[in-house]
Each structure stands twice: as structure tokens, then as C-alpha cells.
């Protein structure tokens, strides 16, 4: 919207607030000194702001026109993203290639000399052809980068997609986060990541992590505006704390909800939010991946060899020039001498262009771009590119149970209440249960919940939105005739303590209409809630004392029985507070009762409970999970289930999945509870490593004993999961971890690859993860593992091909310069070869789809060499064959075949052995095409080079295109490429040499055992640090031509200053 249009809309609604009015509320200084609170008062408090925004603090927006007006006036919540790089900008970036710049200058000099020697009519051809070749390289490279960037941009947009719940027209509605507008009443829960700025108007026990925006590491307590204003009005002891920003109603985008639930009125969206403004200032590029850093070291080694050969070749050519001048063939000070010097210099520069394998990082980027797109189609949304390749080496997977191994479609299939157990369709037994007991149970379920499932009007089935366990209970209550919409939202809710992994229960305090006082509803892990009950609803709905023997019977015969049937058990309880203990004079006064409820310690709320019921909830395992677990075992990956369920439920599910054996007794440490594990391994302790304090496992020997056998951890806390991941990584394992809760974030960050659940996962978990599973399915982790291994395979195939071309091209260029006084390949031909071996080969080999056989071998290790012994054999064998063939063409072929210049070329500007050099050029390229076929096979066992030949049409398309262009260059290139057309016999000879390369590679595999190659190391594989990527030899000589990740130092600097800039910007 233009400035004028925006002001016109503002003029229509003069009573409404401006964008500046709202965004000024979220400046850090204004929040800390109380100015923001004062401004809210001036606007008429939270209700006044709602009126000015044409919304309501209870019902939200009441009609669509108000939403559209808000969008017109205050903008939408479209994520802020970096302006896309245009194709022209990418072309100019490619022109920053140092060697290409030198080559362009040399080509210009060559053109001038040619026109002086031969005249304008024909003298321009050679230089113009070089210009065209360089333009072609730049255009293809820039086009490739453009398509690649567009694909990554689409991926980032997918990452920004999300869902949230708002209240509109009095109903809870799920919308896309990009559809949030100013004035919306947004519901937030524990684990949410705020994408808008807003004012908290309702909530309980809310704590926020504002460190991403302010650098403040402390948890920040938040209160609803009316409570904050009331406390300040009453001059309670919060003013000093509030002044430090430790209590406020302002919720800032980019921060995370660590505890509690609530509602906020949205006051800023999109680029007007605090995080939106920061994103415009600080948009980071993708940092280089570990594989790219390792390959940069290989590329630098090859580049050094290329520079050495280039210098030696130039010296050899200059030596021949000096000798010819000494012999008097032509004067030293002449145009001819200058022309030879320029041509020799261009040959030397072109050798560097060909030798420096800047296609290596390009191949990684293409492989990643291709893989992340395919992975997204298979339910893996990649956030961190390096996680793709790291999954190729994963040998341990620590998986959640709920929703990952199971379907996350919860249903109450067993119910214990009134000392009776009911199975299957439990609501059909409602005539056997007292009405008061049903009412008490269903009220507890409906009030004590944060889920808002919806019933499909067509199928009359529930769509589970929110916590699936709560949805199952709410569906059960609905079957008994109690719909949660009759109970929530409600003014009767005085306080709510959300479920978290430490308490393992949730409590809601309500105003009880009958007693006119406070009632507490609690639900949670059965054994924990049961231990806090001193009564239960017995036969005929009568409350009875819960003695220790009965408590034990309930645990052994109900909870344990449900758990052994793979059921999750949830206990439902309540408690009516005694008015005499808190003041009976406030009966019926909701405001005063709210204060009392807020001041009661959490532990005091949940004691002396009355047990209403125990629900057994079934969550069937996913049908494909047992097969996926079996695949993991076959591929050398150990699967460990880490769950919060009790040990019997966890064991039953693990056996059903195939994690635990069913045909033998379970070992001592195969199944362990989190508390026992934590105590046995000694928790975590601080240790100094390289001058830094890091967390390590307390007792490494005990941990080694446990980790060797452990397959299931029950009743696990996030701390237990973090200890497990820390210890496994310290043992040298590559760990993948799944998580969905806020407290899983540390383990997800610590793991080599963190998987967050896309459906059930909290925003905090998704923010900490590397990959988001869009379907919450364990089989999708297998997909990531398959693609991770395939990325390594693709890069290795490309390296096999490129190193062979490099070695052959360098050797023959130097040999030709020494023996023939010229390079067998001229500048134009070498530029074409460079295009083949870099851009075309990376497209063909880096986009190979994965074969199922990649899951039949062991994972890569952290210290595995990229260039394996088998690859060394392929590279050396292919290079020897090609060098021998090319030497035969140069030194022996003229003795057996008529290679005289065609009559039509006699008298023109052609070398006397132009036919021989054309056969050399044609053979060289054809052998590379056939060599690429051999390079598609990496393993020792596969002899047939055409195995899986039909799984990559792009490969065959690229090779066909290469052969067609090559034949066109030979037949019609003429004076532009300095080649002669060939006869059919000569073409067949070149083709025969190409086919021979495949036959020779088969013979090498058969004749040379792999063990003979174990001690051959062609290149060092020293990883280049991220900060040194821009100063490596590859980047200096071929700067930014294809990598597009060459801003690693800038990315690091940006990351280092992000917190500092964030804090400054919002002040």
C-alpha cells in the first residue's frame, strides 16, 4: 500500500490508532520505564484499544469487513524475506571470477593482434569465440544459481507457513499465521513462538524467553494488562520488578512462551513487528555446510596442482618461443611473438580455469537443492541444509513415541470409575454410572483443557486440533453428552496451571456455582495424580477414603493392566477448597476468588484430591513403523524410544514396533526409567574442553554400560533426553533426535540432527530443530536418512568424474606444451571442457535419486574420507586409460590413418595437423561422457556400469546434449573453434575409444582388489573453516562464480552481532 493510500484510510477512521502509536509500545526502553503502560492507559486501557481497533476482548472480530479494514490500515502478516537476487545481479557476480576477468582481457588483446595480423574481416574470430564461450559459461552458471536460489526461497516460505488459533465472532478458529491482523484475539500456549507483537489480556503462569530479541537470559514473567494495571494501582511490590522489565503485559515477536497459556490482542504484524524490522536489517545467508568445507580443502589441493601445471606449461611454451627466436625463425620484437605470448598466457589461465574444481561446492549446493525439494515432497521440511548430509552418517535415532511411532489418533477405549472398569465404547455404559459422577468427570475434562477440536459437519467426526490426549478426552465427554464449548471460554476459570514435563499434570481452578467457591480440577500421569488423592468416587458415586491398600490395588490392577495393553493412562481428579481456610466472606465474588486462587502455591492446589476416573487411551502404532525399524537395524542404525509413558506402556509399544525383541527376556538395561538412568550415569557436570566449559556425562563408564544395551527409556524427562544425547555424541555417534515439546529444545539443539513434529510440535521445538516432520511419522526419518546418504553418494560420483578429467587435462596440457610446443586443447576447447566437467556434470551426477540399497549398508562415519579407496581405483584407472589413448592419438595414430587436412581447408588459417587435434578433442570429450557412466557406480560389488540406468532421465539428457553440441562444434565450428570436420570413420573411432573406457573400468574392477587401494590417498581432505572459505585458493582464483555461499565470514559476523543489534533496535 502506498503512503497516500494508507493516509486516506487513516483519515476515514480518525478515532483509530496509527501504526506508530502501536509499534512505539514495544520499544524496550518504553516498556522498562513504564511509558508503554502509560500510553495504553491514555488509549483507554485494553478495552479502549480494542474499541479503537473495532474488535472485542471476549469475542474478537465480529465480521469480515472489520478484518479487511484492519488489513488495509495496519498491513498483513506476510513474513519479511530478503529481496530476491535478479538474474542480472547473478551475471555480474559471475563476472567477479578473477580468472575469467583475466581471460577476458587476454581475449581482447588477442582480438586486437588478430585484426592487426589478418585484418578486420577474419582477425576477430578467435577472440570473439572466446568472448562467446565465457558468456556461455557465465549465463549457464548464473541461470543455474537463479533457479537454485528460487528453490531455496520457496523452501524458506514453506518454513514460515504455520497455523494458530484466534477468537473471531466468539468462536475459536484456526487460521494461517500469515492471515493474522491487528486486533485479532490470539490464543497462545506453552511452546509457542510469537510471530506478532501484542498485549496480553488473559492468561496464567506465563513465562517468556526474550533472549532472542533482548539478550536477557532470565525468564520474563507476563501478566494480563488488567492484573498489571490493578497491581500498580494498588501499589503492590511489583513496581520495582516491572521497572526492570521482569513483569509486563507486552509480548514481543520472536520470543518464546516457556510456560503458561493465555490470550493477546495483536497490535503489530508483518514488517511492523519488532522481529519484522530486524529481519529487514539482518537477513542471513545459508552458511557453508560441513561437506562443502571439507570439499573446499580438496578443491584447494587440486587448484594448487593446477596452478603449478599452468606455470610449468607457460614456462615450457616460452622456452620453445625463445628457442625459435634464437634459431631465427622470426624476430623477438614482432607481432607474431606477441601473439604467441598472449596465446600461451591464455592457455595457462585456461588451465587454471579448468583445474580449479569450483564445481565441487556447486555440486553440493545442487545436490542439497535437489534433495530438500524431494524431501519436502516426502514430508521432511529442511531448515538447516547441513542436516541433510549429516543424516547420511546417523547411527542412532532417539525417537518419541506419541505421534512418531504411533498414529497420534487418540481414543478413550477403557475407563475406570466408581470402582468399575468399562472397555471399548465406554459411553455406552453411561446408564451404569451415576449421573453426578459423569457430570463431575466431564466437567473436569472440559474445563481442564486447552484443546479446541472441531466436529466435521459432514462426517460428524471430530478433527483433533491441539493436544491429542486432550482431544480424546473431550471426544469421550461429548459422547457422554457434554460439549466443551459449553464450558470454555468462560469467566468461571480463575486460574490454570498448564501441563509440563516436570509436573506431568495440568490443573484448572474454577468458580463452582453450587458452592459459590473454588474447585480445582486436575488430570495427568496416573501414578502421580493417584499419589496425591486421599479419596475416590466409589460405588454409587459416593466419595470414599482411599487407603494405602486400595491405592496399591488401583495401581496394580487398573493402571498397570491398562499400561500392559499399550494404553496411556490419565487420572482425573478434583478438589473443593474449604472456604473456612481462605475466608468465607468472599463467596460468589469472582474477582476476590481469582486473587485467592492466584496466590495459592501450586503444590497446595494439587493435594488431598478426590479420584474421579482413570482413562485408558489407545494410540495405535503406525502400520509402516515395524518395517521402518527393521530397515534401521539392517542399515546399522540403532533406534531408541524415549517416552514419558510408564515403563509397561513403553515396553508394550516397543515390542509392537520391533524395537524390543519378543522372543526373549528383556536385558537389565534394555528398558530403563528416566530417574534410574539419570542417577546411574551421574547426570551432567561441567568440564573444561579447549578452554571452554561444556556439559559432559557425570559417570562415563556407567553411561557406556547403559548406552550399549538401552533401547527404551520410560518416564523420561527432557533432562534425561539431553543427558542421553550428550553422552552418545561424546562416544563418537551421530545422533538424530525427535521432539515436540518446549523442553525438548535443548536436546534438539544438542543433537547432530534435530527433528521436530510438524503437527504436534511446539513452535519452540520447531525453532530448535533442523528438520520438521510434516506428518510426525517415523518413516519420514528413514526418508531423511536415505537422502542424506544419497547426497554423499552424489558428491562422490561427481568427484570421481571431475578428478579424472582434471588429471588427464593437466597431464596432456603439460605434455603437449613440452613435446609439441603447444597445448593439444586450445583455449576455446578447454572452456567447453570446463563447462562439461563443472556445470553439466554437477547437474547430471548431483541429482541422482537415492536407491533403496543405500539403506542396506552401514552409515558413514564422522572421519570417513570423501575419496574412498574404491574411488581412487576408479580415478587412477580411468586416468591411465584416457592418457594412453590420447598419447596414441598424438604420437602413433598418424602412422596408421590418413590425417591430412581436407582440401576445402587448404589455404585457410588452420594448423597443418588440425584433423589430428580435432580427433584428440572429440575423443577427449566422448571419453568424458562414457566415463561419467562408469562414475555412477561407487561400490566394489557392482560391476555393471548400467545398473539402475533408467532412474535418472536428467543424466541421460545432459549427456545427450553434450554429445550433440560436441558434434556440432566439430562439424561446424571450423575457424571459430579451430577444428576440422571429421569423417564417419573418424567419428566411429572416437566413439570406440569412449566405449573402451567403460570396458577398461570393468576390467579394473575385476583385476584390482579393493584392498590394494586402501593405502592410496590422492588428496588431503583437510576441512576449511567457515571463516576461511572466502580466502581459500578456490575462492581467490574463481571468486563467487558458482558457490553462492561465499559469504560465510559475513554470516558469522551477522550471527555474532544479532543479539546486540536486536537489543539496540527495540530500545
Word description of this protein:
The protein has 41 helices and 29 strands. With 1067 residues, it is α/β, with parallel strands linked by helices. Strands 11, 12, 15, 16, 17, 18, 19, 20 and 21 form a nine-stranded mixed β-sheet that branches. It is elongated. The two termini are 27 Å apart. This is Calcium-transporting ATPase.
Outline:
This protein is α/β, with parallel strands linked by helices and 1067 residues long.
Features:
single chain, 1067 residues, 50% helix, elongated, transport, 9-stranded mixed beta sheet
Describe the SSE topology.
Elements: H1 3-12, H2 19-23, H3 28-32, H4 35-42, H5 45-52, H6 64-74, H7 87-94, H8 98-118, H9 120-123, H10 125-160, E1 163-168, E2 171-176, E3 185-188, E4 197-209, H11 211-214, E5 219-222, H12 225-233, H13 239-243, E6 247-248, E7 250-251, E8 256-268, H14 274-281, H15 290-327, H16 335-355, H17 359-377, E9 380-382, H18 386-390, E10 396-399, E11 411-417, E12 420-423, H19 435-447, E13 454-455, E14 462-463, H20 468-479, E15 493-497, E16 505-512, E17 517-525, H21 526-531, E18 533-537, E19 543-545, H22 548-564, E20 567-576, H23 579-582, H24 590-599, H25 602-605, E21 609-618, H26 625-634, E22 638-642, H27 647-657, E23 671-673, H28 674-681, E24 684-689, E25 692-697, H29 700-709, E26 712-714, H30 718-730, E27 735-739, H31 745-750, E28 753-757, H32 763-768, E29 771-773, H33 778-819, H34 827-845, H35 869-891, H36 914-934, H37 953-972, H38 974-977, H39 984-1007, H40 1033-1037, H41 1048-1065
Parallel strand pairs: 5-6, 10-22, 10-27, 18-21, 22-26, 23-26, 27-28, 28-29
Antiparallel strand pairs: 1-2, 1-3, 3-8, 4-5, 4-7, 4-8, 9-29, 11-12, 11-21, 13-14, 15-16, 16-17, 17-20, 18-19, 20-21, 24-25
Helix pairs in contact: 7-10, 8-10, 8-16, 10-17, 10-34, 15-16, 15-17, 15-33, 16-34, 17-33, 17-34, 19-20, 22-27, 33-34, 33-35, 34-36, 34-37, 35-36, 35-39, 36-37, 36-39
Amino acid at each position: 500500500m502506498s503512503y497516500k493510500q494508507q493516509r486516506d484510510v487513516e483519515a476515514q477512521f480518525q478515532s483509530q490508532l496509527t501504526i506508530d502509536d502501536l509499534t512505539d509500545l514495544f520499544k524496550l526502553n518504553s516498556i522498562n520505564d513504564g511509558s508503554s503502560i502509560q500510553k495504553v492507559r491514555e488509549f483507554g486501557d485494553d478495552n479502549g484499544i480494542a474499541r479503537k481497533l473495532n474488535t472485542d476482548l471476549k469475542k474478537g472480530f465480529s465480521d469480515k469487513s472489520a478484518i479487511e479494514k484492519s488489513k488495509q490500515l495496519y498491513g498483513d502478516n506476510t513474513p519479511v524475506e530478503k529481496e530476491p537476487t535478479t538474474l542480472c545481479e547473478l551475471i555480474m557476480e559471475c563476472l567477479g571470477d578473477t580468472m575469467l576477468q583475466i581471460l577476458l582481457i587476454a581475449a581482447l588483446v588477442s582480438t586486437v593482434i588478430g585484426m592487426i595480423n589478418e585484418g578486420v574481416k577474419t582477425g576477430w574470430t578467435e577472440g570473439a569465440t572466446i568472448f562467446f564461450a565465457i558468456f556461455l559459461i557465465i549465463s549457464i552458471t548464473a541461470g543455474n544459481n537463479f533457479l537454485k536460489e528460487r528453490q531455496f526461497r520457496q523452501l524458506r516460505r514453506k518454513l514460515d507457513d504455520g497455523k494458530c488459533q484466534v477468537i473471531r465472532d466468539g468462536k475459536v478458529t484456526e487460521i494461517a499465521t500469515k492471515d493474522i491482523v491487528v486486533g485479532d484475539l490470539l490464543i497462545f500456549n506453552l511452546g509457542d513462538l510469537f510471530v506478532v507483537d501484542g498485549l496480553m489480556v488473559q492468561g496464567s503462569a506465563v513465562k517468556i524467553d526474550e533472549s532472542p530479541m533482548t539478550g536477557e537470559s532470565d525468564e520474563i514473567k507476563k501478566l494480563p494488562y488488567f492484573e498489571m494495571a490493578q497491581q500498580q494501582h494498588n501499589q503492590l511490590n511489583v513496581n520495582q520488578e516491572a521497572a526492570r522489565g521482569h513483569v509486563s503485559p507486552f509480548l514481543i515477536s520472536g520470543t518464546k512462551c516457556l510456560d503458561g497459556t493465555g490470550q493477546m490482542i495483536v497490535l503489530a504484524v508483518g514488517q511492523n513487528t519488532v522481529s519484522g524490522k530486524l529481519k529487514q536489517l539482518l537477513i542471513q545467508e545459508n552458511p557453508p555446510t560441513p561437506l562443502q568445507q571439507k570439499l573446499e580443502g580438496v578443491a584447494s589441493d587440486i587448484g594448487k596442482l593446477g596452478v603449478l601445471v599452468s606455470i610449468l606449461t607457460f614456462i615450457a611454451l616460452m622456452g620453445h618461443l625463445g628457442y625459435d627466436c634464437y634459431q631465427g625463425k622470426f624476430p623477438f620484437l614482432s607481432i607474431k611473438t606477441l601473439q604467441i605470448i598472449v596465446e600461451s598466457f591464455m592457455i595457462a589461465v585456461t588451465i587454471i580455469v579448468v583445474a580449479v574444481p569450483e564445481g565441487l561446492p556447486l555440486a553440493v549446493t545442487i545436490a542439497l537443492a535437489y534433495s530438500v525439494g524431494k524431501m519436502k515432497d516426502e514430508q521432511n521440511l529442511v531448515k538447516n541444509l547441513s542436516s541433510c548430509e549429516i543424516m547420511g552418517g546417523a547411527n542412532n535415532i532417539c525417537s518419541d513415541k506419541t505421534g512418531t511411532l504411533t498414529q497420534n489418533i487418540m481414543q478413550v477405549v477403557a475407563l475406570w470409575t466408581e470402582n468399575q472398569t468399562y472397555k471399548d465404547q465406554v459411553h455406552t455404559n453411561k446408564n451404569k454410572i451415576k449421573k453426578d459422577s459423569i457430570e463431575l468427570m466431564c466437567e473436569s475434562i472440559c474445563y481442564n483443557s486447552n484443546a479446541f477440536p472441531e466436529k466435521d459437519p459432514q462426517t460428524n467426526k471430530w478433527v483433533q486440533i491441539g493436544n491429542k490426549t486432550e482431544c480424546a478426552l473431550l471426544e469421550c465427554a461429548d459422547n457422554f453428552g457434554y460439549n466443551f464449548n459449553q464450558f470454555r471460554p468462560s469467566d468461571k476459570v480463575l486460574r490454570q496451571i498448564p501441563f509440563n514435563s516436570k509436573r506431568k499434570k495440568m490443573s484448572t481452578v474454577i468458580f463452582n456455582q453450587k458452592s459459590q467457591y473454588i474447585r480445582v480440577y486436575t488430570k495427568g500421569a496416573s501414578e502421580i495424580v493417584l499419589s496425591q488423592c486421599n479419596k475416590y468416587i466409589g460405588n454409587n458415586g459416593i466419595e470414599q477414603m482411599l487407603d494405602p491398600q486400595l491405592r496399591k490395588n488401583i495401581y496394580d490392577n487398573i493402571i498397570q493392566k491398562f499400561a500392559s495393553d499399550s494404553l496411556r493412562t490419565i487420572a482425573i481428579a478434583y478438589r473443593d477448597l474449604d472456604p473456612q481456610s481462605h475466608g468465607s466472606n468472599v463467596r460468589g465474588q469472582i474477582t476476590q476468588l481469582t486473587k485467592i486462587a492466584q496466590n495459592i502455591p501450586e503444590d497446595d492446589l494439587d493435594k488431598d484430591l478426590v479420584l474421579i476416573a482413570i482413562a485408558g487411551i489407545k494410540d495405535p502404532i503406525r502400520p509402516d513403523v515395524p518395517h521402518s525399524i527393521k530397515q534401521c537395524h539392517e542399515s546399522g542404525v540403532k533406534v531408541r524410544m524415549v517416552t514419558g509413558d510408564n515403563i509397561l506402556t513403553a515396553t508394550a509399544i516397543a515390542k509392537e514396533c520391533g524395537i524390543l525383541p519378543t522372543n526373549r527376556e528383556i536385558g537389565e538395561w534394555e528398558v530403563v526409567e528416566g530417574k534410574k538412568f539419570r542417577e546411574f550415569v551421574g547426570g551432567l557436570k561441567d568440564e573444561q574442553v579447549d578452554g571452554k566449559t561444556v556439559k559432559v556425562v557425570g559417570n562415563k563408564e556407567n553411561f557406556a554400560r547403559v548406552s550399549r544395551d538401552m533401547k527404551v527409556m520410560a518416564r523420561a524427562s527432557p533432562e534425561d533426553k539431553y543427558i542421553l544425547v550428550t553422552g552418545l555424541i561424546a562416544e563418537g555417534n551421530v545422533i538424530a533426535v525427535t521432539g515436540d515439546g518446549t523442553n525438548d529444545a535443548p536436546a534438539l539443539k544438542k543433537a547432530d540432527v534435530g527433528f521436530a513434529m510438524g503437527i504436534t510440535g511446539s513452535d519452540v521445538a520447531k525453532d530448535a530443530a533442523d528438520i520438521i516432520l510434516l506428518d510426525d511419522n517415523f518413516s519420514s526419518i528413514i526418508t531423511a536418512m536415505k537422502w542424506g546418504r544419497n547426497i554423499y553418494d552424489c558428491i562422490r560420483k561427481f568427484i570421481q568424474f571431475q578428478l579424472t578429467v582434471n588429471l588427464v587435462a593437466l597431464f596432456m596440457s603439460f605434455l603437449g606444451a613440452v613435446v609439441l610446443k603447444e597445448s593439444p586443447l586450445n583455449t576455446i576447447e578447454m572452456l567447453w571442457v570446463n563447462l562439461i566437467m563443472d556445470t553439466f556434470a554437477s547437474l547430471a551426477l548431483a541429482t541422482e535419486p537415492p536407491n533403496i540399497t543405500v539403506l542396506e549398508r552401514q552409515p558413514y562415519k564422522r572421519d570417513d574420507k570423501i575419496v574412498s579407496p574404491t574411488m581412487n581405483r576408479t580415478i587412477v584407472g580411468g586416468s591411465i586409460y584416457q592418457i594412453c589413448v590420447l598419447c596414441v592419438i598424438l604420437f602413433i595414430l598418424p602412422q596408421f590413418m590418413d590425417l591430412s587436412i581436407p582440401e576445402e581447408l587448404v589455404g585457410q588459417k588452420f594448423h597443418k595437423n588440425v584433423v589430428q587435434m580435432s580427433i584428440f578433442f572429440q575423443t577427449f570429450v566422448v571419453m568424458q561422457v562414457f566415463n561419467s557412466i562408469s562414475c555412477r557406480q561407487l561400490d566394489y560389488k557392482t560391476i555393471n556400469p548400467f545398473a539402475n540406468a533408467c532412474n535418472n532421465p536428467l543424466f541421460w539428457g545432459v549427456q545427450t546434449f553434450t554429445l550433440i553440441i560436441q558434434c556440432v562444434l566439430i562439424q561446424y565450428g571450423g575457424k571459430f573453434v579451430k577444428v576440422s570436420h571429421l569423417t564417419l570413420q573418424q567419428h566411429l573411432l572416437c566413439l570406440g575409444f569412449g566405449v573402451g573406457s567403460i570396458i577398461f573400468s570393468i576390467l579394473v574392477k575385476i583385476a584390482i582388489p579393493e584392498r590394494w587401494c586402501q593405502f592410496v590417498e590422492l588428496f588431503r581432505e583437510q576441512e576449511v573453516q567457515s571463516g576461511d572459505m572466502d580466502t581459500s585458493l578456490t575462492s581467490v582464483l574463481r571468486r563467487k562464480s558458482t558457490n553462492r555461499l561465499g559469504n560465510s565470514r559475513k554470516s558469522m559476523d551477522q550471527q555474532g552481532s544479532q543479539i546486540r543489534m536486536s537489543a539496540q533496535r527495540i530500545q
